[in-house]
Amino acid sequence: MLEIIQKIIFEVTGKSEVTIDTDFVRDLELNSFDVMNIVCAFEDYFDTTIPTRDVWKLHQVRDVIEYARQRGIEE
């Protein structure tokens, strides 16, 4: 799952230094528009929908991985 998230982040932002502990705002300096673009790419890749209320809970890559696992979204 980490590799998929790294790929999506790179495709959307061009940022390649992404680890499980990477914080989207603090480490990658992404704004809310960037985060929403990443979420849209993730939704497209996994053919799912992430409610806006859940998006704001996803601060780090580890949050996305845990969110996906809790919802049965797998590689």
What report would you give on this structure?
The chain is mainly alpha-helical and 75 residues long. It has one domain (2-70): Non-ribosomal Peptide Synthetase Peptidyl Carrier Protein, Chain A (Orthogonal Bundle). 55% of the residues lie in helices and 0% in strands. It is built from four helices and no strands. The protein is globular and about 30 Å long. The model has no long low-confidence stretch (mean pLDDT 93).
Query: Which architecture would the CATH scheme give at its second level?
Result: Orthogonal Bundle
Tally of DSSP β-strands: 0
Work out the helix count.
4
Secondary-structure-derived class: mainly alpha
CATH topology: Non-ribosomal Peptide Synthetase Peptidyl Carrier Protein, Chain A
- Chain-averaged pLDDT: 93
Give me the CATH superfamily: ACP-like
CATH class: Mainly Alpha
> What's the number of structural domains?
1
Distance between the termini: 6 Å
User: Which residues sit in consecutive blocks of at least 5 with pLDDT less than 50?
Assistant: none
Give helix % range. 40-55%
